[in-house]
Write a structure and sequence with these properties.
Strand order of the largest sheet: 1-2
CATH topology: Farnesyl Diphosphate Synthase
CATH superfamily: Farnesyl Diphosphate Synthase
Number of domains: 1
Helix content: over 70%
Shape: globular
Order of helices and strands: HHHHEEHHHHHHHHHHHH
CATH architecture: Orthogonal Bundle
Number of strands: 2
Distance between the termini: 6 Å
Radius of gyration: 20 Å
Length: 323
């Protein structure tokens, strides 16, 4: 059952301003580039990543006052995330995102790639203007991590020898790296305490990995309407995620079907059914919970505050997405 607590209630003003600013920050002179980037921003989304940044900022700033640089970092984080989605949709040949046509579907792959590159470039420019060299280094590495994650995923499609640890590493590069870096960066902008900043990096890392595991569970168990994008896409493309990897160890028939790369039309449905009938979903949920507990342990190093409680509730919300 979902938690009724609204963990963003104390940052509503900042989130409203962020919503306006991220659209204003997209200043492409070319109308096609602008339209492509704006298309995805208009679709909204949960704004989970900037919410995390703003809550970390509030929890570490003096008297809970979020700095202008921290607000800008939250905006930069959402721009980087959006850029990565544009590229992901091309790589995965995805047709819908957040319930609307993807940019590559609305325009074409070339426009989507260029729009993603444009947003990465804009985020780098705004990042440099923070004039905090260490924060720039940390956030800049995220963009290389995205590429590392995509390469790892691409070379391991239909690879039955992928381990859970390798899957978690890839999940860090593709999803958790941005959350971890932005949490650490938000803390560094407010305090001169490397221990707390590192603990918040770990918080973001574990939170991001758990988020990806749960996304992968939902890809198997939820409909396209709920997901806002086509379901079972990862499996169809040969991207073997936690539920599938756990199920392969239980059922050799799944392994045999995947080895043949779903040679018949009914193969996907057969594998999905066998995954659901195995213990793999429960094992994946347990793996996500382990990472969420590790994330919660990292928050113990923060002083008690409303923002700390909000971060704890947010962490619990991640696992409640399953129910």
């Amino acid at each position: 059952m979902m938690i009724a607590y609204n963990f963003t209630s104390n940052i509503q003003k900042e989130l409203h301003t962020l919503e306006q600013n991220i659209k204003n920050l997209v200043t492409a002179q070319n109308p096609i580039l602008y339209a492509a980037a704006e298309h995805l921003f208009k679709a909204g989304g949960k704004r989970l990543r900037p919410s995390i940044v703003l809550l970390v900022a509030k929890a570490t700033a003096k008297e809970g006052k979020i700095l202008a640089s921290q607000k800008r970092l939250a905006e930069i984080t959402e721009i980087i995330h959006t850029a990565s989605l544009l590229h992901d949709d091309v790589v995965d040949n995805c047709s819908t995102r957040r319930g609307i046509k993807t940019v590559n579907n609305q325009f074409n792959n070339r426009v989507a790639i260029l729009a993603g590159d444009f947003l990465f470039a804009q985020s780098s420019w705004y990042l440099a203007n923070l004039k905090q060299v260490e924060v720039v280094k940390i956030i800049s590495k995220v963009i290389t991590d995205f590429a590392e994650g995509e390469v790892r995923q691409s070379i391991n499609l239909f690879n039955l020898n992928v381990t859970i640890n390798e899957y978690i590493e890839k999940s860090f590069y593709k999803t958790a790296s941005l959350i971890a870096a932005s949490c650490q960066g938000a803390a560094m902008l407010a305090i001169n305490n490397s221990k707390i900043a590192c603990k918040l990096h770990l918080y973001g890392k574990h939170l991001g990995v758990a988020f990806q595991i749960i996304d992968d569970i939902l890809d198997i168990t939820s409909s396209a309407i709920i997901l806002g994008k086509p379901g079972e896409a990862d499996l169809k493309n040969g991207n073997l995620t936690a539920p599938c990897l756990f199920a392969i160890a239980e059922n050799i028939k799944i392994k045999q079907i995947i080895e043949e790369e779903f040679s018949t039309l009914s193969d996907i449905d057969t594998v999905i059914l066998m995954i659901k009938q195995s213990y793999s979903i429960l094992k994946s949920q347990d793996l996500a919970r382990e990472h969420l507990q590790a994330a919660l342990n990292c928050l113990k190093y923060l002083d008690n505050s409303e923002s700390k409680k909000d971060l704890e509730y947010l962490t619990e919300y991640i696992i409640d997405r399953l129910y």
